[in-house]
Amino acid sequence: MNRRKFLGAAAAGAGVSLMPRVATAAEGELGARVRRCLDRALAAGSPSVVCGVIRGTQRHVAGASKKGPAPGGRTVFQLGSITKTLTATALARAVCSGRVRLDSPLVLPPAFPVPRKGPRRITLADLATHTSGLPSLPPNLLAHADPYDPYAHYRLDDVAAGLAETALSTEPGSTYQYSNLGYGLLGQALAFDDVDAMLRRKVAVPLRLTDTTTTLRPDMASRKAVGHLEGEPVPDWHDRVLSGAGTSMFSTADDMIRYLDAQLRPERSPLRDAIELTQRPHFTADQDLRIGLGWHISTLPGGRTMTWHNGGTGGFSTCAAFERRSRTAVVMMVNTFSEEADDSPRPVDALTFGLLAELIELVEA
Known about the structure:
Residues 1-25 form the signal peptide. It comes from Streptomyces ferrugineus. Keywords: Signal. InterPro entries: AmpC-like (IPR050491), Beta-lactam-related (IPR001466), Beta-lactam/transpept-like (IPR012338), TAT_signal (IPR006311). The structure is a single chain. By secondary structure, this protein is an alpha+beta fold. It has one domain: 3-Layer(aba) Sandwich (Beta-lactamase), CATH 3.40.710.10. The protein has helices at 29-43, 83-96, 124-128, 156-165, 180-190, 195-204, 218-221, 253-264, 272-279, 347-364; strands at residues 22-24, 48-55, 58-65, 76-78, 228-229, 232-233, 250-252, 283-286, 289-291, 296-299, 305-312, 317-323, 328-334. The strands form three sheets. A nine-stranded antiparallel β-sheet has the order 1-3-2-13-12-11-10-9-8, sandwiched between helices. Strands 4-7 form a two-stranded antiparallel ribbon. Strand 8 and strand 9 (289-291) form a beta hairpin. It is globular.
């Protein structure tokens, strides 16, 4: 998924020589495969990387670094757009409780004009499946943005002003077009001006995601990796308005393993019905991609169904993917910004998908 550059932010360089690494990894075939994946992430330009995997009943988290201590399961990274699946889970909870319907129109306070194109209004399902016709970003976001923290200045008044300038590119419900603005508005539709607390209350707390939050506690700050852009340290992103899109969420590999375990076995989760609803396909983008609520659904070689989402902020890149039938999942977090090239995916995405396919083969062997 294309992550457009913010005010000249460049992709992290690939092909960097592999430097000595410090790693925490268990012995055995599973650990060896993870270690190889970590090495490849370092070679692709990541200062450090952590990878968590689930294979049946096994859980394994390992990290590696070009220099200094290796990150571990409790090391804090910015999560990026994987957060959208949490926002979608909050929507699914509201649907399962009868509070809203997926075909409910997007409703915001009167000062926030919702754009229209054609006869049908934007629905909550349109926002959750990226079919609203909204652009990726508000038209007035970047004009006064700090290139290293592009959402920090944006306030609710700016959202209202931006919506007044926003035109839909397609009629709602007709076309897949990835939109951070759409997910930011979905968060506001579910909990106006209280999105971060809502995500903690409705998703993070029930799933025991203790380090998944937009506000760093002191103990989390001491465990946080430093983000990088082109090899240089950069600040974290901050956002209180469009945070439902994943612009400012922090998390850890341990939390993401718990989250992915709930995706693999929703029957053991307190959010079973909501999780099942998010994983159900709700829109077909093309022959290779279907869209759940937040989650993207693709087919792996051999016909297995992979459910996934990736993410990135100015100094971090992440990817999470799972396959339910084999109970296999992978999450990878690196502390550098990167984006896909015209002819290749981001390294973190390619490595995550490749490792998932390898682990599925091990289960089937």
